[in-house]
Amino acid sequence: MAKGESAASLLRELRRRQGHTLRSAASELGVAPSQLSRMERGERPVGEAATQRLSDYYRVPAEVINLATGRVPADIVAILLAHPEELANLRKKFGP
Protein backbone atom coordinates (compact mmCIF):
# COMPACT_ATOMS: atom_id res chain seq x y z
CA MET A 1 0.00 0.00 0.00
CA ALA A 2 1.40 3.40 -0.98
CA LYS A 3 1.87 6.17 1.55
CA GLY A 4 -1.07 8.21 0.31
CA GLU A 5 -3.34 5.18 0.25
CA SER A 6 -2.30 4.24 3.76
CA ALA A 7 -3.10 7.67 5.19
CA ALA A 8 -6.27 7.81 3.12
CA SER A 9 -7.44 4.44 4.41
CA LEU A 10 -6.66 5.41 7.99
CA LEU A 11 -8.64 8.66 7.79
CA ARG A 12 -11.62 7.01 6.13
CA GLU A 13 -11.60 4.17 8.67
CA LEU A 14 -11.35 6.55 11.65
CA ARG A 15 -14.27 8.60 10.36
CA ARG A 16 -16.46 5.59 9.64
CA ARG A 17 -15.59 3.83 12.89
CA GLN A 18 -16.72 6.90 14.83
CA GLY A 19 -19.93 7.15 12.82
CA HIS A 20 -19.27 10.52 11.20
CA THR A 21 -20.46 11.36 7.71
CA LEU A 22 -18.01 13.01 5.36
CA ARG A 23 -19.97 16.27 5.47
CA SER A 24 -20.30 16.35 9.27
CA ALA A 25 -16.62 15.55 9.80
CA ALA A 26 -15.53 18.17 7.28
CA SER A 27 -17.78 20.78 8.90
CA GLU A 28 -16.45 20.04 12.38
CA LEU A 29 -12.86 20.05 11.11
CA GLY A 30 -13.38 23.36 9.35
CA VAL A 31 -12.57 22.07 5.86
CA ALA A 32 -14.61 21.67 2.72
CA PRO A 33 -16.13 18.20 2.22
CA SER A 34 -14.29 17.97 -1.09
CA GLN A 35 -10.97 18.59 0.69
CA LEU A 36 -11.59 15.83 3.24
CA SER A 37 -12.81 13.52 0.48
CA ARG A 38 -9.59 14.07 -1.49
CA MET A 39 -7.50 13.30 1.62
CA GLU A 40 -9.50 10.10 2.17
CA ARG A 41 -8.93 9.06 -1.44
CA GLY A 42 -5.20 9.81 -1.30
CA GLU A 43 -5.52 12.60 -3.87
CA ARG A 44 -4.51 15.33 -1.41
CA PRO A 45 -1.63 15.03 1.04
CA VAL A 46 -2.33 15.36 4.75
CA GLY A 47 -0.28 18.37 5.78
CA GLU A 48 1.23 18.88 9.19
CA ALA A 49 -1.31 21.57 10.09
CA ALA A 50 -4.21 19.26 9.25
CA THR A 51 -2.62 16.39 11.15
CA GLN A 52 -3.16 17.99 14.56
CA ARG A 53 -6.78 18.89 13.80
CA LEU A 54 -7.45 15.36 12.56
CA SER A 55 -5.69 13.90 15.58
CA ASP A 56 -7.79 15.95 17.99
CA TYR A 57 -11.03 15.26 16.12
CA TYR A 58 -10.54 11.50 15.82
CA ARG A 59 -8.89 11.22 19.26
CA VAL A 60 -5.77 9.44 18.06
CA PRO A 61 -2.14 10.45 18.60
CA ALA A 62 -0.82 12.73 15.85
CA GLU A 63 2.05 10.27 15.43
CA VAL A 64 -0.39 7.64 14.14
CA ILE A 65 -1.44 9.95 11.32
CA ASN A 66 2.15 11.07 10.72
CA LEU A 67 3.31 7.46 10.40
CA ALA A 68 0.51 6.71 7.95
CA THR A 69 1.69 9.63 5.81
CA GLY A 70 5.28 8.40 5.96
CA ARG A 71 6.53 11.00 8.46
CA VAL A 72 8.64 9.34 11.15
CA PRO A 73 9.19 11.24 14.42
CA ALA A 74 12.65 12.79 14.63
CA ASP A 75 13.43 11.06 17.92
CA ILE A 76 12.73 7.66 16.36
CA VAL A 77 14.97 8.48 13.39
CA ALA A 78 17.74 9.54 15.81
CA ILE A 79 17.38 6.30 17.79
CA LEU A 80 17.58 4.18 14.64
CA LEU A 81 20.55 6.15 13.33
CA ALA A 82 22.35 5.59 16.63
CA HIS A 83 21.37 1.90 16.71
CA PRO A 84 21.03 0.67 13.11
CA GLU A 85 21.26 -2.94 14.30
CA GLU A 86 17.75 -2.49 15.70
CA LEU A 87 16.35 -2.27 12.16
CA ALA A 88 17.05 -5.96 11.62
CA ASN A 89 15.58 -6.79 15.04
CA LEU A 90 12.41 -4.83 14.28
CA ARG A 91 12.04 -6.49 10.89
CA LYS A 92 12.54 -9.91 12.44
CA LYS A 93 10.02 -9.26 15.19
CA PHE A 94 7.35 -7.34 13.23
CA GLY A 95 8.09 -7.88 9.55
CA PRO A 96 6.08 -9.94 7.10
UniProtKB/TrEMBL annotation:
**GO MF, any single term:** DNA binding
User: Region Disordered: which residues?
Assistant: 22-48
Gene3D superfamilies assigned to the protein according to its UniProt record, in alphabetical order? lambda repressor-like DNA-binding domains
One Pfam family matching this protein: HTH_31
| Span of domain HTH cro/C1-type | 11-65
Top-level taxon in the UniProt lineage: Bacteria
UniProt name for this protein: HTH cro/C1-type domain-containing protein
